[in-house]
Amino acid sequence: MKKRLKMKDLGVVLLASVSLLLTACNSKDSNETPQNESNSEPISVISREQGSGTRTAFVEITGILEKNDSGEETDNTSEEATVQNSTEAVLNAVSNDKNAIGYVSLGSLNDTVKSLLVDGVEATAANVKDGSYKIQRPFNIVYKDGASAEVLDFLKYIESDEGQKVIEEMGYVSDVKGITYEALDSNAKITIAGSTSITPLMEKLTEAYKVFNPNFQVDIQATGSSAGVKSVQEDSAEIGMVSRELKDSESDLKSAVIARDGIAVIVNKEAEVEDLSLEKIKDIFEGTQTSWK
């Protein structure tokens, strides 16, 4: 009788051990599953709207924009991409989605998102200046031939060392030429329209200009690069802001490069990715690479 009791007890112990082992295995599996699922979660691609200077420059540099033998252009940005109409909207979208990726002007970058290395190079003004950071573009302004003396005076201020210092302080690449600004004491009222990427810089430039010309008045409209060009052509603005290379169709206007800017590729702060190649960026924004796995 004693022997049977011992065998029964041994069976209970074995049963309990097997149960414990199965529970441990199941627990391990349940811990690993979310990580595996996380690695395969779809990428949320955030892009700018058509007509945006930032989008035009980005798709050209990364090769997303293709030209055929006839010169016709095709923007291969994924149809699944979420389109945002301003720099601020892109920053908000990426900061609120752990799987998101987007792009913004370097000068507009803030700590709500993470900027990626591109081919191992950080997006900084210094790296834009020496050419090692490849995703970069000019900041142009356009205006009509025969612009007023007051408009030309504001442009002189931007090109002066005082104006270029503002550009440098905002994190863009400046071009100091040893030109000192001499105030005109302007009391003009002008409209400046165009790129949402250039708008924050233009606001700082006009504030600094008013130190020399306190009666100067300006209406700055963030409408997009192409809209800014159209505003000048149609005489609804004196100056247009264009954050890309100018097109042949815009050659009827005079232009000047006021700064150079990098385009930062951004992800959510929780994202594990730190560095992407230009080729991989192209794949993601075209939709051929659809997960972070």
Quote the average pLDDT. Answer: 88
Number of strands: 13
Helix coverage percent: 25-40%
Class computed from helices, strands and strand pairing: alpha/beta
Sheet having the most strands:
9 strands, mixed
Keywords:
D-Maltodextrin-Binding Protein, domain 2, 9-stranded mixed β-sheet, two-stranded antiparallel ribbon, 9 helices
Structure description:
This protein has 293 residues and is α/β, with parallel strands linked by helices. It has two domains: 44-136 and 264-286, Periplasmic binding protein-like II (D-Maltodextrin-Binding Protein, domain 2, 3-Layer(aba) Sandwich); 139-260, D-Maltodextrin-Binding Protein, domain 2 (3-Layer(aba) Sandwich). Helix content is 39%, strand content 22%. The chain contains nine helices and 13 strands. It has helices spanning 2-39, 53-62, 87-95, 125-129, 149-159, 161-169, 199-212, 225-233, 278-286; strands spanning 44-48, 65-67, 73-75, 82-84, 100-105, 114-115, 117-118, 136-143, 189-194, 217-222, 239-242, 254-267, 275-276. Strands 1, 4, 5, 6, 8, 9, 10, 11 and 12 form a nine-stranded mixed beta sheet that branches. Helix 7 links the parallel strand 9 (189-194) and strand 10. It is globular and about 60 Å long. The protein starts with a helix and ends in a 7-residue tail after the last helix. One of its GO terms (cellular component) is plasma membrane. Residues 1-24 form the signal peptide. It is found in: Cell membrane. Keywords: Lipoprotein, Palmitate, Phosphate transport, Signal, Transport. Residues 38-162, 188-293 form the PBP domain.
